[in-house]
Structures are given as structure tokens and as C-alpha cells.
Amino acid sequence: MNQPSRRFGELKKAIPNIKNTMLTLAIYNLEDISVVSGQQSNEMNLMWNTLLMKVAKLYFHFLKLQWEKCI
Fold first, then answer.
1. How far is CA 1 from the centre of its chain?
2. What is the C-alpha to C-alpha distance for residues 63 and 56, in angstroms, rounded to an integer?
3. Most buried residue, 12, 25, 58, 62, by CB count within 10 Å?
4. Could you give the CA distance from residue 53 to residue 2 in angstroms, rounded to a whole number?
5. What are the residues whose beta carbons fall under 8 Å from the beta carbon of 55, sequence distance 6 or more?
6. How far apart are CA 25 and CA 15, in angstroms?
7. Domain coordinates of the chain in residue numbers?
8. What's the pLDDT tens digit per position in 31-40?
């Protein structure tokens, strides 16, 4: 039986009052006995990398402006 995939946050919302640690352990246990299979999504990592690059560019631009004021 093929069920649609669910994200961690969706599972957390579907199970009232469960802690992240308990849900994570339950998922690992179910993976160990081959009831579920999971994969980590890197979508959030890509979003953070993009945001960090923008912040870094702004910071270096700021440093350049500060340097030019000193010269």
C-alpha cells in the first residue's frame, strides 16, 4: 500500500502533544523495521544558503564602504 509522503512538520501537527525527540525516535524505529522509509530534504538548507549569501554580500559591501571612508 503506497501512502503519500509526509514531512516531519505535517506528522507533528497530526499527532497532538508529541515532542520532536519522541517523533524522531518513532520514525527511526519504524525505519529500522522497514515500515517507513525516509529521506532528508535539503530545501531549507538551500533557502538558508541563499539568505546567508545575501547577508554576506551586504556585509562585505558595508565593509567596503567603511574602508573607503577611512582612505
1. 28
2. 10
3. 12
4. 39
5. none
6. 14
7. 1-39, 42-71
8. 888 877 777 6
